[in-house]
Amino acid sequence: MSFTSVSVFLIATVLSLLLYLVHRIFNHWKSRGWPHDPPHWFFGNLQGIGKTKHFLHVYRELYAKYKGISPVCGLYFFFQPVAFITDLDLAQRILVKDFSNFADRGIFSNESGDPLSAHLFALDGLKWRNLRNKLSSAFTSGKMKKMFPIVIEVADRFCDVYKKLLENESVIEIKDLNARYTTDVIGTCAFGIDCNSLADPNADFRRYCGQFFTDRRHNPMVEGLILSFPKLAERLNVKFTPQPVSDFFLKAVDDTVAYREDNKVIRNDFMSMLIDLKNHSTFDESGTEAPGITMGQLAAQAFVFFVAGFETSSTTMGFCLYELSLNPEIQKTLRAEILSILKETGGELTYDSLNRMSYLEKVLMETLRKYSILQDLIRIAQKDYKVPGTNFVLEKGSRVMIPTDAIHYDPDIYPDPQKFDPERFDPEEIKKRHPMAWLPFGEGPRNCIGLRFGKMQTKIGLITLLRNFEFSKCEKTAIPIEIDKGNFLVGSKGGIYLKVKKL
Length: 503
Fold this sequence. Notes:
By secondary structure, the protein is an alpha+beta fold. It has a single domain, classed as CATH 1.10.630.10. The strands form four sheets. The chain has a four-stranded mixed β-sheet with strand order 1-2-9-6, sandwiched between helices. A three-stranded antiparallel β-sheet has the order 3-11-10. It has a two-stranded antiparallel sheet with strand order 4-5. The protein is globular and about 70 Å long.
């Protein structure tokens, strides 16, 4: 047999094998009798993602189609079959009641080849449990109180930047300003470093944080394969974090830790807590001693705290100010509460006075309902699980998705869901709804560990701005706001332009 014939035979064999695998994957839900939509040969049920649709649009459509028909339906996330949850009782079982069977997320991480990917959000099993136990002490209300003055200092500089801009203009692009504020807050709290982003929008921390969300290490097809087969990608030593971002943050962490340890620097911030966890053993619930975290684990936690906190909080602030600009009466009511409580403390914002602002809490909760930065929650079944009231079985290893955003836009739960209405979160209204009706921070033992800090820095930023400035729409304000379809997280396409008036 000639070389050409052998080559043709091998190519045909490989192609046939690939076609068989694709057919087998995309026959997964049909062979099990689950309701599902027919898949595209590569995108699965994500046709149009990044171009005509965002992930949240696909999930809303699927949720609306199958809710009430079946508590679960099948979804193809590229090549990955996913069990899509449409019933809140089942969501509660997965996140809370039967958490022991759904503790893992099954997200890509590669501690050896891509150390920054091995952070708390991505780790599973015993690694996650041990690290979560160690880090929980860093996010108590007591630790938030200690970081509070640090955030206030940055917020004051944030306000000064607004005042300076208003000397020459009345329309301000707030999205980038918010990101510079949260970059400086987290840079100070996570690294003890003045990132200088408010003074210089091209400062290193601001630039590299942005690159993590905008610069892709791989093309969309490769990323789809990594997301579909995370364990295989890890075994192949695939790297996901853009190399310049990885190099910058690893060096920043190494330099910061070395400086603090050499000079015996101790501060009331996240970095000092991580260094303490590195240098001291801890004890789990059974009293067993566990060694401190490694430098790689320290770097990964500092990194995810930085990029997650900077992006989610700044985006939430932007959407909140946007909605307040379109709803001036809500803005007026919120400002009245802020000024009234600050008057009682002589104009000083304290940790206690912050937590007394109940209307601000409602406004923030409604913002997070309408704009859920992460539109889904992912879990992995650790053993076969029969869906209550059905004949469906979530097989061991099955990926499960709870569509946060789709639940938040369910008109049976939130009438007229497009309307911005903070009164939805009056305590009496909350009691009327299912416990799983609001999930921006997840729920159960694997909820967002940094929710206290995220809410604190977001509220401080909003209070600082609203006590000093009035926000309103202008000709450059996009109505309705357009979601960036090319970003996995929920964010606006382009900037958010608002008219700002100094009070």
